[in-house]
Amino acid sequence: MTNKQTKPSFIRVAAGQINTTVGDLDGNTEKIIEWIDQARAHRVQILAFPELTICGYPPKDLLLKTQFIADQQKYLEAILPETKGMLVTVGLVIREGDSYNAAAVIHDGKLLGFVRKVGLPNYRVFDEKRYFRRGEYLSVFQTNVADVGVLICEDLWHAETAANMAASGVDLIVCLSASPFSVYRSLERETLIKCRCQDHSVGMVFCNQVGGQDELIFDGRSVIASPQGNILAQGEAFEEDLITADIRFEEIHRGRLAVPMQRDVVLSDIPGREEIHIFTSKGATASVWETAAPLDLSRNPFLPKPASHEYDPIEDAYQALVLGVRDYIQKNGFRDAIIGLSGGIDSALTAVIAVDALGSDHVIGVSMPSRFSSDHSKSDAADLARNLGIQCKQFAIEPVFDQYLQLFQDEFKDRKPDITEENLQARIRGNILMALSNKFGCLVLATGNKSELAVGYSTLYGDMCGGLAVIGDVPKTWVYEMSRYRNQAAGKPLIPENTITKPPSAELREDQYDTDSLPEYDVLDGILHAYIEQDCSIAEIVELGYDADLARRVVNLVDRAEYKRRQAAIVLRVTSKAFGSDRRLPVTNKYRS
User: Fold this and answer.
1) Is the domain of 259 the same as that of 334?
2) Do both 245 and 197 map to the same domain?
3) For the packed helices 476-490 and 521-528, what is the interaxial angle rounded to 10 degrees?
4) Residues 437, 332 contacting (CB under 8 angstroms)
5) How many domains are there within the chain?
6) Which one, out of 76, 443, 481, 543, has a CA that is 20 to 30 A from the CA of 147?
């Protein structure tokens, strides 16, 4: 290892938490270079970027295109000369016999080497074993200011991998990450980072991606932590951010003397250990310690900091959806969104999220009343549009509905009205929305919630139509909580109070209410959470206290609706298991628990 005596007393490190776009090699590289310049202005010595920075994450089957992988090397070459006086880690895919999820470690304008990701996740939304070979070794980089171990995302979650890296004697662990958002996930990551630092008395820079990519949302919240596990800096949630902090070496050395756990660690004793490869740099890192601001001694610098504010999962999920909508719309070349406004709470919440994401000038509401639409629903839709300052168009569907009824009067004469007539109304509305979308080039946002999507309480090619299902991973009980949260945050009722308090109804027949077809949502969402997110059997659901017949009925509805969900719009993911790549069940399936 590098001679400890020659090192400065601290190093200035940073995480460049940037919003990349999959496949935009030009744009991502320009952003990397821009943020290197920003970091240099802050006298940063070691700078980390997120996982697969150059190509964006997750690139999925773009990784089967050999040219896509080869092109990333060209863009890496453009980054190298921009790193004079710094050590920079940049994520990319490399092909050396096979494909690797990798990080380029660059020091003072030259490539020191590549880090290959060891832990390849193949669960939940991850599918990395389809594309990558696991790395055969861990990598440590010796520089004139620090010995740096570099890990990639999943590697940090494996205790033995982090322990093996720390046992090599590194001063700092840098982790490039693309960790998707779900409620409470940021708390889990923070706890993990603190534990790794405390366990091994090592400083850490954890750089997480931010932004929306199809159904995935990345929340950022990058972290720089001290060897004691103290959070020195944390990135903003759902925004690009450059965070910097100073890691002090004496804290590391004193920590290892005070709690000498590493003395008893033998590399060969660590389960699943990988060989350590050491790369030594001949380059120089620019010094900052002479120009660094001294400690503010006007107050005790060792005074404990107050705990962070209480975590609110509803607020967090709401802000994630705002980012997800904004990035999906803008990264896919749209400017405006169009939403069917029924006067109900689902479409109201979707509209508020869209306005927060895009601005009121870029959201169009469409009211499409029928003979079954109540006066309060029509007025609630109008009040919502007025509160949000969005344009609202109205198309009464009654004439078109009458034409359909006449068209089928002979065919249906011996049959009573049923769900067929209800679905006709939903599909007329879907056609209107899609016609406006085609004519004006705006994206239709589907407004169904997770509870409806789960049990199939929705109409294919009707209310399910749209390019993006904004609240498709938001249970109905959350919909109410999010609506109250947003009104409270605004200090006024953006969503009309009547919309929140009235009984939910699809209004496709006289005196219709959701409870005619479904149990109360408090009960329904509990069963759905157990069955979908926890994979409980009916027997286990009953053990939780739910009625056995009701549990069977709900589970049967979920299973039967799989064919609908396969045809649904992309669902923004905010829970631990969303419909889509999170939950992959066969449509043709006879298994019943």
Assistant:
1) no
2) yes
3) 110
4) no
5) 2
6) 76
Q: What's 409's domain CATH number?
A: 3.40.50.620
| The token pair that represents 448 in the structure block | 């169904």
What number of helices (H) and strands (E) belong to the chain? 18, 21
Indicate whether 276 and 318 sit together in one domain.
no
Q: How far apart are CA 169 and CA 161, in angstroms?
A: 14
The CATH number assigned to the domain holding 247 equals: 3.60.110.10
Write down the H helix ranges in 408-547.
Answer: 419-440, 450-455, 476-490, 497-501, 521-528, 538-543
- Name beta bridge partners: 243: 15
Q: Where do the H-state alpha helices sit in 80-158? A: 154-157
Asked if residues 237 and 316 have their Cβ atoms less than 8 Å apart, the reply is yes
Whether residue 532 is contained in a domain is answered as no
Q: Compute the distance between CA of residue 224 and CA of residue 218 in angstroms, rounded to an integer.
A: 18
The answer to whether residues 195 and 189 touch, using CB atoms and an 8 Å cutoff, is no
CB 444 within 8 A of CB 465: yes
Residues 244 and 135 reside in one and the same domain: yes
329 and 459 part of one domain: yes
Q: Which domain holds residue 70?
A: 12-280
Residue from 16, 46, 261, 274 nearest 162 by CA = 274
Residues 317 and 424 in one domain: yes
Are residues 243 and 202 both part of a single domain?
A: yes
Count of residues in the chain: 593
pLDDT (tens digit, 0 to 9) for every residue of the chain, 593 residues total? 444 446 677 889 999 999 999 999 999 999 999 999 999 999 999 999 999 999 999 999 999 999 999 999 999 999 999 999 999 999 999 999 899 999 999 999 999 999 999 989 888 888 898 999 999 888 999 888 888 999 999 999 988 888 888 888 888 999 999 999 999 999 999 999 999 998 888 999 999 999 999 999 999 999 999 988 889 999 999 999 999 999 887 777 776 666 666 656 555 555 555 677 888 877 777 776 544 454 454 555 555 555 556 889 999 999 999 999 999 999 999 999 999 999 899 999 999 999 999 999 999 999 998 888 777 878 888 999 999 999 999 999 999 999 999 999 999 988 999 989 899 999 999 999 999 999 999 999 999 999 999 999 999 999 999 999 999 999 999 999 999 999 999 999 999 999 999 888 776 778 777 788 889 999 999 999 999 999 999 999 999 999 999 999 999 999 999 999 999 999 999 999 999 888 888 888 888 77
Active site amino acids = 51, 117, 153
Q: 578 lies in a domain?
A: no
Residue 303 in domain? no
- Rounded Cα distance between 15 and 247, Å, is 13
